[in-house]
């Protein structure tokens, strides 16, 4: 189940109808997926936490008198002796607190996703779209004519992945029009309109290359999948 539902039943019905209508133009099969996010990004969360911990240790090395004096004023009182063991223990506690604090802060999703590098988001969305395509559309049609439209909300990214027969005839750059049509609506919060626009564009792109035949059957589900 998706962690958040973005569309109503009516929206789902509209998108399914758009897929059915687009598939009347060609033998292509269109699959639509709407994802809340494409990855948990735990590795990125850990990396930022480790970086904060390392920076804390660097600060302790650069200005030790400030931090040792601060500790003395707050906890130790007068006459405290700083042994190597005590300094190492303080450094370990300081680093652990920084690590834990930054790690916990990133459970607030707006901050977590703001800290993920754009290139990482793009790569993870692409990888997730490819996996979804292989599971749900690749080589599951008679003529290898499946197309996946994949939209990932948290990352603000989308992918269109085509099966081998389509990829052999349609230049990948052609899908840009469908992407732009979708994202123009999605940026304004009209997700269903965006998915329908992308479906219409994909159907129009497929029609000249893969015209519908009289014996064509619907091989993949028309319904939108939310994950």
TrEMBL record:
- Which sequence ranges are marked TM in the entry? 46-67, 87-108
Matches recorded under PANTHER family: BLL7265 PROTEIN, UPF0603 PROTEIN YGCG
Q: Which UniProt keywords apply?
A: Membrane, Transmembrane, Transmembrane helix
Question: From which organism does this entry originate?
Answer: Novosphingobium endophyticum
Q: Output this protein's name.
A: TPM domain-containing protein
Span of domain TPM: 137-204
């Amino acid at each position: 189940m998706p962690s958040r539902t973005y569309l109503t039943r009516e929206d789902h019905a509209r998108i399914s109808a758009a897929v059915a209508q687009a598939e009347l133009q060609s033998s292509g099969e269109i699959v639509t997926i709407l994802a809340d996010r494409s990855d948990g990004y735990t590795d990125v969360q850990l990396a930022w936490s480790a970086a904060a911990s390392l920076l804390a240790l660097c600060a302790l090395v650069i200005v030790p008198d400030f931090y040792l004096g601060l500790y003395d004023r707050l906890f130790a009182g007068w006459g405290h002796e700083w042994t190597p063991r005590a300094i190492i223990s303080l450094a370990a506690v300081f680093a652990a607190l920084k690590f834990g604090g930054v790690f916990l802060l990133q459970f607030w999703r707006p901050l977590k996703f703001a800290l993920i590098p754009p290139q990482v988001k793009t790569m993870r969305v692409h990888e997730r779209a490819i996996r979804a395509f292989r599971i749900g559309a690749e080589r599951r049609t008679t003529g290898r004519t499946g197309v996946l439209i994949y939209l990932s909300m948290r990352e603000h990214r989308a992918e269109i992945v085509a099966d081998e027969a389509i990829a052999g005839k349609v230049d990948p750059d052609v899908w840009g029009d469908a992407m732009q049509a979708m994202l123009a609506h999605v940026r304004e919060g009209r997700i269903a309109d965006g998915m329908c626009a992308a479906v219409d564009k994909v159907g129009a792109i497929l029609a000249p290359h893969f015209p519908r035949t009289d014996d064509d059957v619907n091989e993949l589900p028309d319904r939108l999948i939310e994950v």
